[in-house]
Specification:
It contains 16 helices and two strands. By secondary structure, it is mostly helical. It folds into two domains: 89 residues, no CATH class; 231 residues, MetI-like fold. A two-stranded antiparallel sheet has the order 1-2. The radius of gyration is 26 Å and the shape is globular.
């Protein structure tokens, strides 16, 4: 079965790189050969270390499907990288065919010497830990146990039937969307107000930005004092004013909102800082021209200011999404502990529960890889969709 998959990927790779080479002015026949070779090597890159275990006779259809997915994904990455390199080499050859290339080194040794420290640090602290995490995800490894056992991709395939994990995925996506949307809308509104000429603006802006300097764990402690259902400041005020007591941290319907509010407050200063810088760079002559044409304040903001802020908004969407997926761990740990009834157990917090509380390092490693791939997928989706609508320049 695996050889059939490799053959199909080789055919697709040959067709893809033949087309890319033709578009770049290179020989398509050579591209087809390169595509077939890269497709075969790429599809086997992860399966060889796994000893093709997903295609063993005693494996389920789910394991086999996951193996095919791994082969297709690694082959797609290898083919995409090869096509990108070929296109860039062809473009450089066309642009600089008449003489020396400005801003380049004369030899090949000097740039590699300059890159060596960076490559060494990345290899030691990024690439090696990533590969070791993938190795750990294929093992039955318990924290404190002296031995491990190879279990192929069971740590991944079992996630498809793990209701607790699937619930954490849905919770993560919903909380992240709420954090990003509410934070950006509120930050833009506050930045627009703060941008107005008011007395003591510098002090006021500093006070708005300082929450960014607080760690997520400290934010969790602060909002624990605010949202405590029995002695919290917010419930005390609501009870005195309206006779209400909201079970912020005890009700699965309210607890996610406590996490969202705390996380929005934590990231608010960061977003305001960037929006303030963006508003200062909006050309005033464009706003004045729109006012002369009869546009009111809301129309000027929507038709002129928002398009000019699109690069900053796009950047903040990516950074806030990363924050919502990864950095809310400290807030959740101190504020709700993942409860009640796992209503605030995100994917990141679930990795902690599985790996540290339940001592299952292999399953936690598999979940961390899934989380990483999910964030990369959302980021690529943003670049493919919203990134195309970003307006750079006046």
């Amino acid at each position: 079965m695996q050889f059939l998959v490799i053959g199909m990927i080789a055919v697709v790779g040959a067709a893809y790189l033949a087309r890319r080479f033709s578009q770049s002015g290179l020989k398509p026949a050579f591209g087809a050969v390169v595509g077939a070779v890269v497709g075969m090597i790429g599809s086997a890159a992860l399966m060889i270390p796994l000893d093709w275990c997903t295609f063993d006779p005693d494996r389920t259809a789910t394991d086999m499907g996951f193996g095919i997915l791994l082969m297709a994904a690694t082959a797609a990455l290898a083919l995409g990288a090869t096509g990108w390199i070929a296109g860039n080499l062809a473009a450089r050859r066309t642009v600089f065919s008449g003489g020396t290339q400005p801003g380049t080194f004369k030899g090949w040794l000097t740039p590699w010497i300059l890159l060596a420290p960076t490559i060494g640090v990345l290899a030691l602290f990024l690439y090696y830990p990533s590969l070791d995490t993938f190795r750990l995800s294929t093992l039955l490894a318990l924290l404190g146990a002296p031995r491990t056992r190879f279990i192929c991709v069971d740590n991944f395939t079992r996630l498809a039937t793990d209701t607790v994990y699937l619930n954490s995925v849905a919770t993560t996506i919903l909380i992240s969307i709420a954090i990003v949307v509410i934070s950006l809308v509120l930050s833009l509104f506050i930045a627009s107000m703060v941008y107005l000429p008011i007395k003591g603006a510098s002090v006021y802006r500093t006070l708005l930005i300082w929450p960014y300097a607080i760690s997520p764990a400290v934010a969790g402690v602060i909002f624990l004092l605010l949202f405590n259902p029995t002695g919290g400041i917010i419930n005390y005020a609501l009870n005195n004013l309206f006779g209400l007591r909201i079970p912020w941290l005890n009700d699965p319907a309210w607890a996610p909102w406590a996490v969202i509010i705390a996380s929005v407050w934590k990231s608010l200063g960061y977003n305001i800082l960037f929006y303030l810088a963006g508003l200062q760079n909006v050309p005033k002559d464009l706003i004045e021209a729109a006012a002369i044409d009869g546009a009111n304040a809301l129309q000027r903001f929507r038709q002129v200011v928002l398009p000019m802020l699109s690069p900053i908004t796009f950047f903040l969407v990516i950074t806030n999404m990363t924050y919502a997926f990864f950095e809310t761990f400290g807030t959740i740990d101190y504020l709700t502990g993942g409860g009640p009834l796992n209503s605030t157990t995100t994917m990141m917090y679930n990795i902690f529960l599985v790996g540290i509380r339940n001592n299952d390092l292999g399953k936690a490693a598999a979940q961390s890889i899934v989380l990483f791939v999910l964030v990369i997928g959302f980021t690529v989706l943003q670049f493919r969709t919203a990134g195309q609508r970003v307006t750079y320049g006046a």
